[in-house]
Amino acid sequence: MSANKKSPGMDLLDGVEKGNVRAIARMISLAEAAKPESRPALAEIFRRAGNAHVIGITGVPGSGKSTLVDVLAKAMRASGRRVGIVAIDPSSPFSGGAILGDRVRMTELTCDDGVFIRSMATRGALGGLARSSLEAVDVLDAAGFDLILIETVGVGQDEVDVVRAAHTVVVISAPGLGDEIQAIKAGILEIADIHVVSKCDRPDSNATITDLKGMLTLGVRAMDMHEGGWRVPVLPTSAETVEGIDDLLAAIDGHAKHLADTGGLEERRRRILEMRVLKTAEDIIRKDFRDGRDKLSGLMKSLQERTMDPHEAALKLLDRINEG
Amino acid sequence: MSANKKSPGMDLLDGVEKGNVRAIARMISLAEAAKPESRPALAEIFRRAGNAHVIGITGVPGSGKSTLVDVLAKAMRASGRRVGIVAIDPSSPFSGGAILGDRVRMTELTCDDGVFIRSMATRGALGGLARSSLEAVDVLDAAGFDLILIETVGVGQDEVDVVRAAHTVVVISAPGLGDEIQAIKAGILEIADIHVVSKCDRPDSNATITDLKGMLTLGVRAMDMHEGGWRVPVLPTSAETVEGIDDLLAAIDGHAKHLADTGGLEERRRRILEMRVLKTAEDIIRKDFRDGRDKLSGLMKSLQERTMDPHEAALKLLDRINEG
Hints:
Oligomer: homodimer
Order of helices and strands of chain A: HHHEHEHEHEHEHEHEHHHH
Number of strands of chain A: 7
Strand content of chain A: 5-15%
C-alpha cells in the first residue's frame, strides 16, 4: 500500500494493533481533532476494524447508565474478554472538555489493562460527535477489544444516532423519574434490542417493568431494528446489589449470537455504515461552509434581502462546494 | 411574480397574511411535511417574514419551561401584542406526534385569538427539526405576530440550534435538579441572553441564582452571542406566584431594543440565516441519500469490504448528488 508514513498517526498503527494504551489514546485524539492529514491513518484503522461486538447503552438522565456500564464491564472482564468503553458526556462550557466522565470513571476498572475507557465531549455547535465517537470505536476495534460499549445520554439526535450505530442496543429505564424525563425516554424506547430497568431494589420498579412489557406486547418497536424475530427482553437490574447483571450479559451475548445466526449482523453493519457515510457527508458540508464563509457573502446578501430563501441558498451552497 | 398558483400553499398566502388561524395551521403543516411542491409557497412566506421579534426559550427537563411560557405569553398579551408559540416536544413512538404539548397547552390561552400555539414533534431519525420549526416561525412572522416564542428542551444539538436561531435567547434554570441534569444544562448556559431561575418560591433557589451570577462574573459566555456589551441578567421567577414575569418581559424588550440600537440585530439575523442554510443543506443531503440508496450499492460494497472508509464514501456521495 502507498500509505504515507509521514501522515500523523501512521506511526501509531502498530501500537494500536498491539493494544498499546498510549498509541490507542493518541489515535483517538487524532479522530477527535479531525485534521485532514490524519485521514490516511484513520482510514487504515477502519480497514483493520470490524471484529468487535459493539454495544450501545443509553437512557435518560438519572437512569443510572454510568454505574451500570461499570458493573457490566466488570462482568465482561470476568468472562475473560477485553472491554473498550467510549463514554459520551455533555461538554463543559468552561473547559471545553467532558465534565462527568473522568470523575465517574475513577473506579477499580482503571487499574485493569483489559479495559480501556475514553470520555468524549459533545462539544457545542461544531458537530462531528457521531463521526469522532465511531472512529474511536474503530480504534478500539482495531486494537483487538472483544466488546466495545458506547454510552450516551439518550437525548438529542446525534446521541441517539451514535447508540444506533451499535450491534446491540441497550436502553435503560429507571423507576420514579418525572413526566418530562419519561417523555424524552419515549423517543428512545423503540431502538432497544434489550431493555434494562435499573434500580430494581426500589419498590416502584415493578410498575416500570410492567409498562415496558405492556408496550412490547402492543408491538411498539421499530420493525427494521429487530431482524429475524428477536424477542426484546426486559431485564431488572440493580447496580447496588449487582442483581441482573449476569442476565444482561447473557442477553447481550444471546443477541450477538442471534444476529450471527440469522444474518442480521450483516444487515445491521450495512445500516450502520450507511449512517456513518451520511453523518460524515454532513460534517464535510458543515466544515466547507465554515471555511467558505467569505465566498458566500453574495448568497448571504440575497438571503438578508429575502430575495432568496434558505432552501434555494442551500442548493446553491451544495453546488459551490463541488466547484471548489 | 411568476408564482405558480397550483403549487400547494399558494392559495393560503393571503389567509396567512390576514392572520387566519386555519390558513396558518395548514401552512405550518406544509412546512412539516417538507414536500418539494410546497417550496414556492414557503419561499414566498420567507420573503414576507422578518418583522417579528423571535424569542428562544430553553431549559433542562423539569425546569418548568412550558408553565413559564404560558405566563409569559399572557404578560405579552397584556402589553397589547400578538404572540405566536412554537413548542417543540419529544415525539411519541406510538402516535408519531408530540406527547406533551397538546396536553399542557389546554389553557386559557387557547381561547385568545391573539395567540397561536403550535406543538411540533422531534420525530425520530429523519432530521429536519430545525428547518421545519424555523419555517413555522416564518409563517407566524408573515402572519403578523409581534412576538414569537420558540420553546424547546435544551438537550441535543438540533434543539439547541433551534433556540439559537432566535433574536433573544432565554435559558431557564431550576433549583434542586440532579447532577446529570445540571451537567446537560451546562451546555446551554453560554447561549443565554437572559437567565431565568424558575421556582424561586423554593428556598434553595438563592443558591442557583448565586451560581449563575458567579459564572457570569467569570466571563462564562460565548462572546459572539453578546454583541455590543449586553449585560446578561439573572432573573428569579415563579410561575406559581407570577413573580418576576414582568421583569422578564422588560428584559426581553430591553434586549430587543439593545440589538436594534447597537446594530446587533443585523449581525444576529445574518448568523441565523447562515445556520438555516447549513441545516437545510444537511437536510437535502440526507434526503438525497435516502432516495438514492440503490445507486449507492457499489459504494456500500466497498465499505462493507472495508476497501473504502466512510470519509472517502462521503466525498463520493457529495459528488454523486450533484451529478443526479
